[in-house]
Amino acid sequence: MQRIGWRAPLITYAIAVLGAGLMLVLSFPAPFLTGPAMAVTLAGLAGIRTEAFPTRLRDAVFVILGLTIGQGVTPEVLGAMQAWPLTLAALAGSLFAIILLTPSILVRFWSMDASTAFLASSPGHLSYVLGLSEGAKADLKTVSIVQSIRVLALTLLVPVAVTLSGQLPGIAPETPDETAVLPLLAMIVGAGLAGYLLQRLRLPAAYLIGGMLISVVAHVTGLVSGVMNYWLAAAAFVALGALIGSRFSGVSWVQLRRAFSAGVFVTLIGVVLAGAFAVLAHWLTGMDLIAVLIAFAPGGLETMAAMSVVLGIDPTFVASHHVARLLMLTVIVPIFVLRGRRD
Fold first, then answer.
1. pLDDT digit string (tens) for 143-192?
2. Would you call 174 helix, strand, or coil by DSSP?
3. DSSP 8-state symbol, 250
4. Distance from C-alpha of 205 to C-alpha of 116, rounded to nearest angstrom
5. How confident is the model over 211-240, as pLDDT tens digits?
6. What is the DSSP letter of 249?
7. d(CA 56, CA 236)
8. What is the secondary structure of 196-224 as a DSSP string?
9. 113 by DSSP, 3-state: which?
10. Minimal CA–CA distance to 220: which of 63, 75, 69, 66?
């Protein structure tokens, strides 16, 4: 049983590695994320059984991603935090705009009930939303497909859009030194413990945030220097892409066709509204527009934060805003869900 239980995740990761290799050869943007996500999605739709990794392994992946994201904190970034309250306020405005506008359109043009429409249009925090929705009168399969299309589309399109914009930051000619083995192991252990404690407090994306916190403290205080081991970081990015693609496993083409247009709509309106507020935040603060756009993009926290690392965009700013988005949704979503249960 133990061997059978690992078979599907291993096949999934092998497909993800092949996808990453192909996108790398083709010089596709962010190949270690986009390649696995695309390959595993297509494999699942073709009938191959793809499966998410066991919980502990998934937590370990998020620890590595968190440590990688946190290493980008610099004194310059800390100094720029004085402008973040304005961008956080704009982010909150984008969330309310999406939540108030999108469900009514899904009800009217896709004939969804109110609960299904709201859950399908929530700009993130899918696992938390589905957990709260237990007992709600909603089509959770439709919700899962629509939300998965949103995450997958943003994973594939964000790096392409940034690259085509011509505003991709230049890559430094020198390669930073990697963190020594013993300090790296210490950070991994510390991040795992921090993630466990945050999970006990029911904080979303606990292991990712735990890794970020440990990495930020270690690098800012000078206890640790250098960057994450290249191959370890690449393996974590590939695993994240595989996790995104595995959401489509077991979805039939009939189910996909029915929810696809709604998923595209939710993605487009979310991007348009988030983009409008991002431009406003850029205008108010003067911060880099591409960084603000990615920070406001209604994609998964892990995906967008990792994307910022891959694309060379300030990962601390991006990750902080996506964490803030999840915390805001943690407060907002229960109000709507509980109201729907009373109706």
1. 778 887 887 888 777 777 766 666 555 544 456 788 999 999 999 999 99
2. coil
3. T
4. 24
5. 989 998 998 888 888 889 999 999 998 998
6. T
7. 13
8. HHHHHTT-TTHHHHHHHHHHHHHHHTTS-
9. coil
10. 75
